[in-house]
Amino acid sequence: MDVTITNIRKEFGQFPALYDLSLDIRSGELIALLGPSGSGKTTLLRLIAGLEQPTAGKIFFGEEDASEKSVQERHIGFVFQHYALFRHMTVAENIAFGLKVRPKANRPPAHEIRKRVSDLLDMVHLTGLEKRYPAQLSGGQRQRVALARAMAIEPTVLLLDEPFGALDAKVRKELRRWLKEFHDRTGHTTFFVTHDQEEALELADRVVVMSQGKVEQVGTADDVYDTPNSPFVFSFIGESSHVPVTVRDKMVLFQGEPIGTTENGEGPGELFFRPQDVVVTTDSQSLYGKVTACRRLAGTRIAEIDVANNGHEPYHLEIEVPLDAPVAVGADIRFRPTRWKLFGQ
Ligand code: ATP
């Protein structure tokens, strides 16, 4: 099911939680909504579900205007971080719940419900556990039951709000892979809210980066990591540092000294770069600073560097340095970004 969100605005009292937000989601996409706390991710999910009404704007499921439809009519599957299973029901009863409570006219016959539950148990790899109660399951198993329950009603759209947020890192990683496979097999249009950018980048077909009630960028993991379209996205996704520069006659100048060339822009701007996109050099056309710390980070080594700022608070930058050539704390160092993006030109 395609989902089209057009000029949605949501105010809580006077407070706008979402401003004029538009998105075109294609049928079958796995979409991650990623952004800092309070950026409006859950509000957007609740609007899609029909749990909140927009102040302005519309949401279409396919060609149909869903804005006027009730939660039930929208036929949504939900999984929330703390959306507890029914404790007094077995796994099978939990999964069958959404079908059993349907009015008689729409309710599948009992043998069909049993077959659907059995297929879903197989799909979420929980066959054999159907008679257990939620208290007899691990956290990861419970969330898989929650997903099977959401899928039982054959939803038009699947909404997942931090579904693995309460689980430990290792289980989260396993479930992440599993969810990707599950999505690839079932092909439901899915919105997935997460704080965790690694999760978003690994899982999603496209990531919607949100900040302060607005969409900052929509793109694949490569798009948002390699070509961020704003200082916010550059800083928010992955590690980065930035310094103020001036572009004059295609030269990029930091504190009056050239550190590179550019084809774009003229005048003051902000130069953003990632720790791995630098080269340590002795060349004078470079940034110059003092190493304040050096730490091993898995397969890399990161140096923290203070670059003097004309008597003001120094610029604190982080760069990757060769593993086999650790730099000494207190040493002076020169380096030059080899790949960067300039904003504010
Ligand atoms: P988090 O990652 O912390 O869950 P979020 O990105 O999901 O945050 P929302 O929960 O959508 O953010 O909240 C967006 C903004 O709207 C926040 O500033 C929040 O305080 C406000 N907000 C959300 N729900 C309500 C409500 N029912 N009444 C008033 N303000 C609300």
From TrEMBL:
Keyword Nucleotide-binding attached: yes
Is the keyword Transport in the record? yes
Give UniProt keywords alphabetically.
Answer: ATP-binding, Cell membrane, Membrane, Nucleotide-binding, Sulfate transport, Translocase, Transport
As one GO molecular function, the record gives: ATP binding
Q: Where is the ABC transporter domain?
A: 3-237
What Pfam families does the entry give? ABC_tran, TOBE_3
According to the UniProt record, one GO cellular component term is: ATP-binding cassette (ABC) transporter complex
Fetch the PROSITE patterns from UniProt: ABC_TRANSPORTER_1, ABC_TRANSPORTER_2
What biological process terms from GO does the record include?
quaternary ammonium group transport
Write down the superkingdom of origin.
Bacteria
Q: Could you say which protein family the record assigns here? A: Belongs to the ABC transporter superfamily.
State the name under which the record lists this protein: ABC transporter domain-containing protein
Organism source for this protein?
Answer: Ciceribacter selenitireducens ATCC BAA-1503
